[in-house]
């Protein structure tokens, strides 16, 4: 069984590498072919702002900012796959606590209800927690309660919140690029989470928490010996 599982993980990682190369090429095109003309457009908009006062200027500036976000999100998605480096024994609670300190959630609360040591790329694992924590705070509100723990069968871990949860028909779509984030703006945050999980050979599913909020379960995680 262990041999078949190891081979499955190797095949999955080879597939991820091919997808990563394709994404890297796409990100390069986005970066070079969109960033430069976008900067030019923003520069001319500032000149226009000095010459006249039009309500259309603010609309154009908002469109430019949205384009900037799309470019940066695309590059972040590419980096999420590229930055899976050497793995090492990592303690879940430690990474979760460090991640929580970096997000703006002064009125929210993190509860770590269990921990374990797993084999992972520490930086990518922290990015995973960063994204899931921000997603929880954005959707559950500024006073959200977020929980991290180990799954009962010890095959992985979960992150959940007490927010409004995810609509049942959309549970399978949240890791696709363009799934609406807070304020109904399409983003790639959860797609980045999916990329990090895939690169480790794990799996992730979205479901409901006991409080009715969103719950993300990461499985296929081997504990360190």
Main pleated sheet = 5 strands, mixed
The largest beta-sheet arranges its strands as 2-4-5-7-6
Order of helices and strands: HHEHEEHEEHEE
The average pLDDT is 80
Q: Any low-confidence stretches, pLDDT <50, length ≥5?
A: 178-187
β-sheet strand percentage? 15-25%
Shape: globular
Secondary structure class reads alpha+beta
What's the total count of β strands?
7
Helix content: 40-55%
Number of helices: 5
- Cα(first) to Cα(last) distance is 18 Å
Report the radius of gyration as a whole number of Å.
Answer: 20 Å
Write the layout of secondary structure elements.
Blueprint: H1 2-51, H2 55-82, E1 88-91, H3 92-102, E2 109-112, E3 117-120, H4 122-140, E4 145-150, E5 156-161, H5 189-199, E6 203-208, E7 214-219
Parallel strand pairs: 2-4
Antiparallel strand pairs: 1-3, 4-5, 5-7, 6-7
Structure description:
With 225 residues, this protein is an alpha+beta fold. It has 5 helices and 7 strands. Helix 1 runs antiparallel to helix 2, helix 3 packs across helix 4 and helix 4 runs antiparallel to helix 5 (189-199). The model is unreliable at 178-187 (pLDDT under 50).
């Amino acid at each position: 069984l262990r041999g078949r599982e190891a081979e499955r993980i190797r095949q999955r990682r080879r597939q991820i590498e091919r997808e990563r190369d394709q994404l890297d090429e796409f990100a390069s095109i986005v970066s070079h072919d969109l960033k430069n003309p976008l900067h030019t457009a923003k520069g001319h908009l500032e000149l226009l702002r000095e010459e006249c006062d039009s309500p259309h200027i603010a609309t154009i500036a908002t469109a430019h900012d949205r384009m900037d976000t799309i470019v940066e999100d695309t590059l972040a998605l590419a980096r999420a796959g590229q930055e899976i480096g050497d793995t090492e024994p990592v303690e879940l609670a430690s990474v979760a606590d460090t991640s929580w300190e970096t997000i703006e959630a002064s009125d929210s609360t993190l509860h770590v209800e269990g921990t374990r040591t797993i084999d992972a790329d520490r930086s990518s694992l922290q990015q995973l927690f960063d994204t899931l924590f921000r997603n929880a705070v954005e959707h559950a509100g500024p006073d959200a309660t977020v929980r991290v723990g180990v799954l009962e069968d010890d095959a992985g871990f979960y992150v959940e919140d007490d927010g409004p949860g995810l609509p049942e028909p959309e549970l399978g779509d949240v890791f696709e690029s363009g799934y609406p984030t807070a304020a109904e703006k399409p983003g790639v945050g959860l797609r980045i989470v999916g990329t990090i999980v895939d690169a480790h050979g794990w799996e992730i599913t979205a479901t409901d928490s006991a409080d009715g909020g969103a719950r993300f379960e990461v499985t296929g995680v081997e504990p360190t010996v």
